[in-house]
Amino acid sequence: MGPLQGVRIVEMAGIGPGPFCGMLLADLGAEIVVVDRRGGSLPFNARPQQDITRRGKRSIALDLKQSGAAEVVLRLVAQSDALIEGFRPGVMERLGLGPEACLARNPRLVYGRLTGWGQSGPLAQAAGHDLNYVALSGILHHGGHADSAPSIPPTVVGDIGGGAMFMALGLVS
Question: Which helix (H) or strand (E) holds 94?
Fold first, then answer.
């Protein structure tokens, strides 16, 4: 139960803010279907039951590079309210699952993209990680002392307080 009961969201498996966003929405009652990579999507060889961001979610494992796999995802999209993806720019398009393909199947779909550096610009194709964001934004400066190097924050500030929360708010809005 929750305010998002009856809302269905497709989450493309990933790490960082995407799964955390999906977890928040699942906690609010949304039905989340994670599209996992066949062979596993979790970092560090973790098992799904060890990943807190998996709570309240169901999953399907697909090899998205195989013929017919995109069609399975598009069938899910046709019955969903939103999609969350956190791949580098162009990946979903190459898989046949970009916004145009998904919106052609479901015009009311909210297509949520989480990328480290946006869809265009000088860093768009670079991997984005929380420590990069807090360092380049200047936040890391506030975690140290004048006579020592900065301390790495004990939580993932950019991924959770930034990307995941903004994505959840955007999707709900």
Answer: helix 91-94
